[in-house]
Every structure is written in structure tokens, then in C-alpha cells.
Design brief:
The mean pLDDT is 90. Helix content is 28%, strand content 34%. A hairpin with a 5-residue loop joins β13 and β14. The chain is built from seven helices and 14 strands. The protein is α+β, with helices and mostly antiparallel strands. Strands 9-14-13-12-10-11 form a six-stranded antiparallel sheet, with helices on both faces. The protein has a five-stranded antiparallel sheet with strand order 5-6-4-8-7. It has a three-stranded antiparallel sheet with strand order 1-3-2. It folds into three domains: 72 residues, Ribosomal Protein S8, Chain: A, domain 1; 76 residues, Alpha-Beta Plaits; 86 residues, Roll (Structural Genomics Hypothetical 15.5 Kd Protein In mrcA-pckA Intergenic Region, Chain A), CATH 3.10.290.10.
């Protein structure tokens, strides 16, 4: 266990105990998949306190963990803010992507763990962040790449800002994790083994280190540094015994 993991575990336990004994809400920063997985390994050591993970919208990958002492947690709305970042002139805007928005925000000196998911739609970015830094971003972020932009708080919580997908179809020998990831990334199965054994693959947010894991329909696979996709299942079988499968890869 490295030093950073030890510090994180102590932080989880500290927040859980404070929430339990003082009956108040306590929060982490935004957690990545590996940090969420570390939390799950600690659950048996936690006091009997309720918790919830939320990233600002259904299906978020990066999430804030809240421990709460009461019967329900309703405070994410005050802890997480969604910012809409839009070009001043969309017609002359660069084709902005996730990396462009994230890079511009981090260049302001903001810590990565205060930023959640970033969704991109029609050259606009929807950034989930901790509310405490939202005004700083609004006041200081004026350009993304070469595009002049403005920021505003996204007040309409019903706005459809769900991720966009690219459908991938192909054949695999089985629904084994290594076979399906190889199809998703357009790589060989042998090249995938290092990613799985290196702790970079998560299925529905939980670390999976076995290449022989058989995926189930609608499970979400995240490969750190390579994106994520939803496994939609087997469609039919070829005459040679291979299986047609469909994936939805996040754009």
C-alpha cells in the first residue's frame, strides 16, 4: 500500500466517524474510479454510518462521497455545481473536446480533485465542480484553446446533458473482459493484459484484475487513460462459433 492510499483510507475513516458521532454530513472531493474502489475495500472497517456517492448526474464516473448522520442526504445540490461553458461565437469556435475544457480549467491553478465529469455537446462544455470554486471559474475562465468563452451556472437541472456514444459492433470469441476491451480499443488481446493486470480496468466502478472475467449485459467498463464503454451484450453467433456483440463507447 503506497503512502497516498494510506492517507486516503485514513481520510475516509475520519469523515465517516465525524458524520457518525456528530450526526452531520461530511464530504470528500471528487473521487476517481480507483479511489472509489479503495473506499469499497474499507466498508467493513467503517462505523455504521450511511453514505452516498454522487457526481452531479446519473451515470457520472467521478463522484463525491458523502457520509451522513440523518435519515437522508439532500445536500449534494449545495455541494456540486454544474457550469455551462459556451463559445461567444459558436460559428468560429474550435472543435472543443474534454481535454481542452479540463486543461483550460486546470491552467487556472485548480486542483483536479475539485472537478468531476466534463460532458461535451455541440462545442459546449458542462463541468461538474465543487460549488466553492464555481465563482472563481466563472470569473477567470475566458478562453478554451483559441476560443473565447463565457461561463454560467447551469440552473436547469432537467437539461439533457447525458453523454454521447459511438456504437461499436464486431465479433469476439467470448464475452471475456480481454476480448471485449480489445474490440473496444481496436487492439490485440495480448496488449490488453497489461492494462487489466496493471489495475487500470474497472467494471461498474469496481476494479477487475482477471482477464477471464465474463461481462454481463449493460455493465460499464472503464479503462484508465483509454475511455469507457457500455457492453450491450451478444447479438448472435457466427457459423464459426464467434459472437457478434455491440458496445456503446463514450465520446
Amino acid at each position: 500500500m503506497d503512502k497516498e492510499e494510506q492517507i486516503l483510507k485514513k481520510r475516509f475513516l475520519e469523515l465517516a466517524r465525524i458524520a457518525y458521532h456528530k450526526e452531520i454530513n461530511t464530504y470528500t472531493d471528487f473521487l476517481n474510479l480507483n479511489e472509489i474502489n479503495i473506499f469499497y475495500t474499507l466498508k467493513q472497517e467503517m462505523p455504521n454510518v450511511k453514505y452516498q456517492l454522487f457526481g452531479g448526474y446519473e451515470g457520472a464516473e467521478r463522484k463525491v462521497l458523502c457520509f451522513y448522520g440523518g435519515d437522508s442526504v439532500k445536500a449534494f445540490s449545495s455541494y456540486i455545481t454544474c457550469l455551462r461553458i459556451l463559445p461567444l461565437n459558436k460559428k468560429f469556435s474550435d472543435d472543443l473536446n474534454h481535454r481542452d475544457f479540463l486543461g483550460a480549467i486546470l491552467n487556472l491553478g485548480i486542483e483536479r480533485n475539485t472537478i468531476g465529469d466534463i460532458l461535451v455537446k455541440e462545442k459546449e462544455g458542462y463541468v461538474f465542480c465543487e460549488t466553492t470554486i464555481s465563482n472563481f471559474i466563472i470569473d477567470n475562465l475566458v478562453k478554451v484553446k483559441h476560443t473565447n468563452i463565457r461561463c454560467e451556472v447551469q440552473m436547469d437541472q432537467t437539461l439533457d446533458i447525458t453523454p454521447e456514444f459511438k456504437d461499436i459492433r464486431g465479433t469476439v470469441s467470448s464475452a471475456r473482459l480481454d476480448s471485449v476491451i480489445a474490440l473496444a480499443l481496436g487492439a490485440s488481446r495480448s496488449s490488453i493484459l497489461g492494462l487489466i493486470e496493471g489495475g487500470k480496468v474497472f467494471v461498474d466502478g469496481k476494479l477487475v484484475e482477471s482477464n477471464s472475467y465474463n461481462l454481463k449485459e449493460n455493465e460499464t467498463v472503464s479503462v484508465r487513460g483509454h475511455g469507457k464503454f457500455i457492453y450491450k451484450g451478444i447479438q448472435n453467433q457466427t457459423k464459426k462459433g464467434r459472437f457478434y456483440v455491440t458496445l456503446q463507447k463514450y465520446i
